[in-house]
Amino acid sequence: MILSGEHTKKLPTAGSTGAPYREMMERIEITPEMRARILEHVQQADLSPDQAAREQKKVTIFAGRRKYVGMAAGLVVLIAACAVMPAVLTKNGDQNPDQTPEGNTQAVWDYQEYDSVQALSAQMGYEVSDLKGLPFEPQTVVYASIGTDLAQIEYETDDRSVCYRKSSGTEENSGDYNQYEKIDTVSVGDAQVELRGSKDGYVLAVWTDGVYAYSLSFSQAQPEDVWMQLLETNITPDEEK
């Protein structure tokens, strides 16, 4: 605390000539034992420039540690905030069925699995077909409904997967809101299919036939020729519906 004006009291210095200072110095007594200990400490002290540098280094390191301690404390707060924040996104970028962004408001999205594509179609009330011509042989296939009008089929192996979705209406149903550096539109039959990805290939296709919305996503980027073959095999022209 810094005092100013009349509250500031000047301390005596070695060059002071005031009576209080002289009285204080006269009271100091150094016994032979004290003198011996002082001389011993002086002799043992390392006053070399290297030692001074080491002492300065110690102070510098400690100051740096204080900075990182503060950073670590901030990181702990951040981790704690993430731990308590509800996870509202699924692996596909969809909202978690049990959470919505509006705080405590909850919307329950029913997720149900089925043992066949026929059972899935019966539940949805419209025809859902298995994909044909996949570029790999799936080890597992999961048929599921999400909510009342979204059908999903996942084809998986140990290192890759494909997610196919169909829903009533024309609104996009991919649940993928990533920003892609490469977006192209291709014509497949009567459909205009939007392909999204990067220079390494495409990972997502979305389209609609005016009645239903479709999306198809790969876990790994695929070249355009693989996409075109798969889309042409599975998109049914209007006259064949």
How would you characterize the overall build of this protein?
- The N and C termini lie far apart (86 Å).
- A hairpin with a 2-residue loop joins strand 5 and strand 6.
- The radius of gyration is 38 Å and the shape is elongated.
- The chain has an 8-stranded antiparallel sheet, covered by helices on one side.
- Helix content is 32%, strand content 25%.
- With 241 residues, it is an alpha+beta fold.
Helical residues, percent? 25-40%
Detail the poorly predicted runs. Answer: 1-22, 52-104
Largest sheet: 8 strands, antiparallel
Q: Give the C-alpha Rg.
A: 38 Å
Number of strands: 8
Specify the structural class.
alpha+beta
Taking the alpha carbons of the first and last residues, their distance comes to 86 Å
Query: What number is the mean pLDDT?
Result: 73
Q: Given the C-alpha coordinates, what overall shape results?
A: elongated
Question: Please, how many helices?
Answer: 5
With strands numbered from the N-terminus, the spatial order across the biggest sheet is: 1-2-3-4-8-7-6-5
Share of residues in strands = 15-25%
Q: What is the H-and-E element order?
A: HHHEHEEEEEEEH
Question: How would you describe this structure in keywords?
Answer:
eight-stranded antiparallel beta sheet; 25% strand; disordered N terminus; 241 residues
List the helices and strands and how they pair.
Elements: H1 19-27, H2 32-44, H3 49-84, E1 111-114, H4 117-124, E2 140-146, E3 150-156, E4 161-168, E5 182-188, E6 191-198, E7 201-208, E8 212-222, H5 224-234
Antiparallel strand pairs: 1-2, 2-3, 3-4, 4-8, 5-6, 6-7, 7-8
